[in-house]
Amino acid sequence: MSDKFPSRVLEHLRVRAGEVVLERAGQEVTGAGMLSLVCRATAALRTAGAGPGSGVALMVGVTAQGFAANLAAHVVGARVSGVRPGLTADQLAYLLDERIGWGLVDAATPVDLVLKARPDLVLVDVDRLTLDRDADEDHDLEPRGRDADEARITYTSGSTGNPKGAAQTYAALNADWPSRTEFHSDVLADLGSRLDRYLLHGTLSSAVMLDYALMTLLHGGRLVIPERDAPFPELVARHRLTGSIITVPKLLALLAAVRDEGADVSGLRGLMVSGSPLDPRRYAEALHLLGPIVFQGYGQTECGLISMLSPDQALASEAAMTSVGRPLPRNQVQTRDDGEIYVRTPQQTVGYINQGDIEREQAEVFTPDGWIRTRDLGGLDAEGFLHLEGRARDVVIVNANVYYAGPIERVLATHPSVDSAYVVGVPDETTGEAIEAFLILRDDTPTELLEPGLRRAVTERLGEAWVPRGFTVIDELPLTPGGKPDKKALRRPLV
Questions:
Q1: CA atoms of 277 and 43, how far apart (whole Å)
Q2: Which among 47, 87, 344, 380 has the fewest CB atoms less than 10 Å away?
């Protein structure tokens, strides 16, 4: 069997030809049916002129056809850029650069905005792919990706400006962990075994979402696409879900629903928390309320999944509970003199591809000796668990002194009335910047009664200079399109 992506996925679909691998709105798709969709999408792309090295933008909703089209674009050896929904015409024009000649679209795609940004783009409508017969086994599905070619462009959140596209080659994609089960650690294999009915949601432009979808399939699970948006506990009950990937804010909302409303999510067996570190106190609460089902992962766009922590490890060791797990077997991790974590992984990207001041940013992240600077602070303990102590650039500079947001957030979150805390820097005429804290509370305690205790706790743990200038209670945390805390939105009213 070839190791070229996605050959192992296609072979697995052949093995599961008669089994259901995906369901949506009452429709069930077997392995043979998914192969049929991949065949037709591959033929459509080749008919449109796409082949090895062609730039293809993925702009489709979460459907069986969209999932198949993603695989097909890699079969033809294209350079696939995942374009998330909700972008403006200007943002689309920025992302749909001259290297992209084809676009995969469907009913969810704002085709008018796409053509306004790139009127010369060749569009392939994946909604025309049908499921009226078995797989076209006579069609050529031999992957054509060339090792040195760019295979997948994954965009950063754009929290510091326009999104940066990180390029992963076919050589790196071929070595990536989701379709190479022989390289799965015990923790990855444990999680995979729990994803019998995995919620496929969000956007197929997300490399993370695709990774866990592939992991589910190769461990014998089924992808479940909800027919409409609904609160997560409702989706769990309606679709009999056993697993999903979830961000920290959504996990906290789930815990509140279980704790305060008695939501029944007892069918869940594996929840993967991703996107940002989970506070140890919240992790312990999650394991108490939900049971030993919560996994925590740590990774970045530039290097993929770095480490993973299982609930069994967290419950067995206090050191593990405060970590983000052990690095995956083939990953290398080191902490350099400044306390920053550097990593090297088989699946890491080779650099950024967008226009602008990319050379400077690339030099800050990609080292000449092949390591990636995560810009996170921390290191490995004696048991091999990786600990994060803060983000190097999530800082507030007061009177020319640097204060990291992470330690302040963790102290504030230890207060019994505080559900979660978020710290940002805002302009200050006297000190340059000032520290401001935003709180989501667990009860109705007035802020003026909370402040003395919060200030005292930060002073005792970190020092008086770390105490926030002000505290603002919010009902809901604003999120970026990628599901992470949107600190720009928090900061905006105070600037």
A1: 42
A2: 47
What is the distance between the alpha carbons of residues 277 and 216, in angstroms, rounded to a whole number? 23
Neighbours of 370 (CB within 10 A): 10
Evaluate whether 398 touches 365 at the Cβ level (below 8 Å).
no
For 49, counting Cβ atoms within 10 Å of its Cβ (0-12 exposed, 13-18 middle, 19+ buried), the class is: exposed
333, 342 Cβ separation under 8 angstroms: yes
Torsions phi, psi for 426 (to 5 deg): -125, 155
Instruction: Tell me the pLDDT tens digit for each residue of 437-462.
Output: 999 999 988 888 999 999 999 999 88
Assess whether the previous peptide bond of 485 is cis (omega < 30° from 0): no
Q: Is 344 exposed, middle or buried (0-12, 13-18, 19+ CB in 10 A)?
A: middle
Q: Could you tell me the pLDDT band of residue 403, with boundaries at 50, 70 and 90?
A: confident
Q: Which of 445, 427, 425, 444 is nearest to 435 (CA)?
A: 425
What distance in Å separates the CA atoms of residue 145 and residue 74, rounded to the nearest whole number?
7
H helices, E strands: number in the chain: 17, 25
Domains and CATH numbers, the chain: 7-146 (3.40.50.980), 187-344+359-391 (3.40.50.12780), 395-494 (3.30.300.30)
Question: What CA–CA distances, in Å, run from 259 to 252, 253, 255, 414?
Answer: 10, 10, 6, 18
